[in-house]
Write a structure and sequence with these properties.
Elements (H helix, E strand, L loop, with lengths): L2 H9 L10 E2 L3 H9 L8 E7 H4 L4 E8 L1 H5 L2 E2 L3 E2 L13 E5 L3 E5 L5 E5 L11 E4 L5 H8 L16 H10 L5 E6 L3 H7 L1 H10 L1 H26 L5 E5 L3 E2 L2 E2 L3 H7 L1 H13 L5 E4 L8 H7 L3 E3 L9 H6 L1
Parallel strand pairs: 1-4, 5-10, 10-11, 11-14, 14-15
Antiparallel strand pairs: 2-3, 6-7, 7-8, 8-9, 12-13
Amino acid sequence: MNPRERMKEVLHHRKPDVLPWLESFYEEAVLNWFKQGLPPEKIIVIEWEMGRGGTNLYNWPAIKGFDAYSYFGCHGYYGCVVPVDVGPLPRFKQRVLEEDERYLTARTETGAIAKRIKGEERTWYSMPMFTEFPVKDRKTWEEYKKRLNPKDPRRYPKDWNRDDYIHTFENYQRGPTMMRFNGFYGFGAELMGIAPFNIALYKDPELIHNMALHWEYYITETIRDAVETLKDRIDMVFWWEDMAEKHGPLMSPKLYKEYCLPHYKNLTSFLRKNKIDRIMVDSDGNINPILDLFLEAGITGLWPLEVNCNMNAIGIKKK
């Protein structure tokens, strides 16, 4: 069996010939390995593309990243991802707003303002402090919503050709193929901040319902062409939520039923109609209180499972 076949067996609760060895290396880990002796020339990925970012018609070799997976004999967890852009378009222009000897404050591509420790801008494990978010109320949501237009042609890559992508996704073997996007809690928390979003669940339910309804429409229509083209060549959908901490979810079962469940059902139904039946949610923390609602929503897998948060893998698999 190849790595993709092994992963598909695991996703369907079957036994492969051997368990797949999948990893997800952060860039700062790879940079540290370079300092420790990892030869860069062994893992650099170079692709030929139009010169200087498309400003010239000649082809030019460009460094696209690092493939440490092949070097170590494992495979990337995210495998081959459907390249559909679900972010705001146009992007917010990244720019430094304030800087001193210790901190750097900048606007991010999603519109949030983040304060980071200088020298650690590229470090994933040094979390920034967000000082402002783009959506604060109904007026700012209506403005932001203009950037979430599913018909924007920039959402698909310049080389989007259905036959070519069908061939690519049929023949990929180095791991799973997948599609990724934010869930109905995760996108709201990213646009408003966790605390303001949770407060709005109670103080401005009309706003949250409008946001969830638009997010369902927006994601469905944005991914429609890719889903209806590739169908079950997409091995799994990976929903990012991060909606819990050690003692429980950041949203009660009652609120999940009201704000999230109907939209999850509609979107998972659309995916299943197109033969995509492995639907994962990425959420840290203890989500046991809403686990049954996840199942009702059509979710078939969870990642990660934090032992310190009482997420018991054997018990969850039985459900």
